């Protein structure tokens, strides 16, 4: 079978799942040469097996609003691949959530988790529940109802969910509380827990910090650094917040942040009390990014993304397909030479092509944002050992993991002076899982 025949088959079988087809195409295009030249992998039909989730769970989530109205949402957990460890990956609560989006995220997670060097399989889940505008009590009732079904499918050695879009410490708390009550056990079944009840230091910061550590590694290869660089960030949630903090610590200046309604431009940099305001605005007040512009007298661009603001470094930290081909061209034209993806698959295939052709440093999400799940892995270890590592210990392990991911990308993606991080990440992530599947026979 040729690569095109294989991809055609995947597309035909999953015709209603464009994001999943996009994610599979990118991986398969990168690894095809390696796969095609390995008779063992082909005979075992590893690719046919790896694109099929081991298990998909879809369930009803009924709950009540504060006024007593009955609501029904759909819950999902995709247990995609457990060849190298228990299923591991976040939960996303967002109205756009559907099977195809969670399958793309679960598929990406397989290779990302493999790159972390830790023993974690790939999974993802979530719901089309929209937390926006809901009271804490409504969110609690939803989370409790969600866990009343999910609990029977997960466990610290089976499947360990965490946060993603719309799921942070508050939601993990409600989910954990219900799991603990029903199971009558206190285990590391979820990561991203509060620091007082089993969470790991640095987990909140980990994805954003890791994305910036990865950018720093890519720049180092070119003898450059983040010091003095102008940086565009999208999003203003968990990943964006700590990416901004780490850029500030390394001497860069972040001039944009966004949410789904628009972006703000702060030419002086989102730092100091302005950064603290952003965290309070988004995490406690749960307000809109436009309020930052009002508060500090900055420009707000409703309904737009930040990619036409000139920068040297871009960190997309909001959602999938948020940089298209035209926006990628604009970034490159304006002098951007480093893109490190905090979000999952934020660049469209056309955008990726623009970055690759321009030979800029382009770190795809499964490498650049793996620090979040890696630190979740460190949280699992601490929970199992019933110990807590210090901030410095966890941060230094995270930093080393990001360096190791960079080294794996370099090993499999080096092409003369250029490092193709897409190829490097996909081949390195794939080979470990594929070899584990071979070793374990036809499962
Ligand atoms: P949050 O919910 O904390 O923040 C999400 C941010 O992105 C918000 O600013 C949100 O704006 C914006 N956003 C969400 N959906 C859209 C959309 N459809 N269009 C435009 N903007 C949107 O999520 P995280 O920061 O945790 O996640 C951000 C990205 O990082 C996601 O792609 C996630 O998969 C990825 N990621 C997260 C990890 C983690 O540890 N949390 C780990 C690895 C990757 P609004 O408030 O208006 O919705
Ligand atoms: O996309 C991701 O890697 C996450 N949302 C984090 C998953 C995790 O298990 O920490």
Summarize the structure.
The chain is of the alpha/beta class and 443 residues long.
Provide a descriptive summary of the structure in words.
With 443 residues, this protein is of the alpha/beta class. It folds into three domains: 1-52 and 423-443; 53-187, Leucine Dehydrogenase, chain A, domain 1 (Rossmann fold); 204-368, Rossmann fold, CATH 3.40.50. Helices cover 49% and strands 17% of the residues. The protein has a seven-stranded mixed beta sheet with strand order 9-8-7-6-10-11-12, sandwiched between helices. The protein has a five-stranded mixed beta sheet with strand order 1-2-4-3-5. The longest helix is centred in the C-terminal third of the chain and has 23 residues, at 391-413. The radius of gyration is 21 Å and the shape is globular. The protein starts with a helix and ends with a helix. Bound molecules: NADPH dihydro-nicotinamide-adenine-dinucleotide phosphate and (2Z)-2-iminopentanedioic acid. The site of NADPH dihydro-nicotinamide-adenine-dinucleotide phosphate has 25 residues, from helix 9.
Task: List descriptors.
single chain; binds NADPH dihydro-nicotinamide-adenine-dinucleotide phosphate; 7-stranded mixed beta sheet; binds (2Z)-2-iminopentanedioic acid; Rossmann fold; 17 helices; 17% strand; alpha/beta; globular; 443 residues; 3 domains
């Amino acid at each position: 079978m040729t690569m095109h025949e294989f991809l055609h088959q995947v597309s035909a079988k999953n015709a209603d799942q464009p994001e999943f087809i996009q994610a599979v195409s990118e991986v398969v295009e990168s690894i095809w040469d390696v796969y095609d030249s390995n008779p063992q992998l082909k005979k075992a039909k590893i690719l046919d097996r790896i694109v099929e989730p081991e298990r998909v769970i879809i369930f009803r989530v009924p709950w009540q609003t504060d006024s007593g109205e009955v609501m029904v949402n759909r819950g999902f957990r995709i247990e995609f691949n457990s060849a190298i460890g228990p299923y591991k990956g976040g939960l996303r609560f967002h109205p756009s959530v559907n099977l195809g989006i969670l399958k793309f995220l679960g598929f990406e997670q397989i290779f990302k988790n493999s790159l972390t060097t830790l023993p974690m399989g790939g999974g993802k889940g979530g719901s089309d529940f929209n937390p926006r505008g809901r009271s804490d009590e409504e969110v609690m009732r939803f989370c409790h109802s969600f866990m009343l079904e999910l609990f029977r499918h997960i466990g610290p050695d089976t499947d360990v969910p965490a946060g993603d879009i719309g799921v942070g410490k508050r939601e993990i708390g409600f989910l954990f509380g219900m799991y603990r009550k029903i199971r009558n056990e206190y285990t590391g079944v979820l990561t991203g827990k509060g620091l007082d009840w089993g969470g790991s230091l640095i987990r909140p910061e980990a994805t954003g910090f890791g994305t910036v550590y990865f950018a720093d590694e890519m720049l180092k290869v070119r003898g450059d650094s983040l010091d003095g660089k102008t940086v565009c960030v999208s999003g203003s949630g968990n990943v964006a917040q700590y990416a901004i903090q780490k850029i500030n610590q390394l001497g860069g200046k972040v001039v944009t942040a966004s949410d789904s309604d628009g972006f703000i431009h702060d030419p002086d940099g989102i730092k100091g009390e302005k950064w603290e305001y952003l965290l309070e605005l988004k995490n406690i007040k749960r307000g809109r990014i436009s309020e930052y512009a009002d508060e500090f007298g900055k420009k707000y661009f409703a309904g737009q993304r930040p990619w036409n603001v000139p920068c040297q470094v871009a960190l997309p930290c909001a959602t999938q397909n948020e940089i298209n081909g035209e926006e990628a061209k604009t970034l490159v034209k304006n002098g951007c030479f480093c893109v490190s993806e905090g979000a999952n698959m934020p660049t469209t295939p056309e955008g990726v092509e623009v970055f690759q052709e321009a030979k800029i440093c382009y770190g795809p999400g499964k490498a650049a944002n793996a620090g979040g799940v890696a630190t979740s892995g460190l949280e699992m270890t601490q929970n199992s050992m019933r110990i807590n590592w210090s901030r410095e210990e966890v941060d230094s392990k995270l930093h080393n993991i990001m360096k190791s991911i960079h080294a794996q990308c370099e090993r499999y993606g080096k092409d003369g002076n250029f490092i193709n991080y897409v190829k490097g990440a996909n081949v390195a992530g794939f080979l470990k899982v594929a070899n584990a599947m071979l070793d374990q026979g036809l499962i």
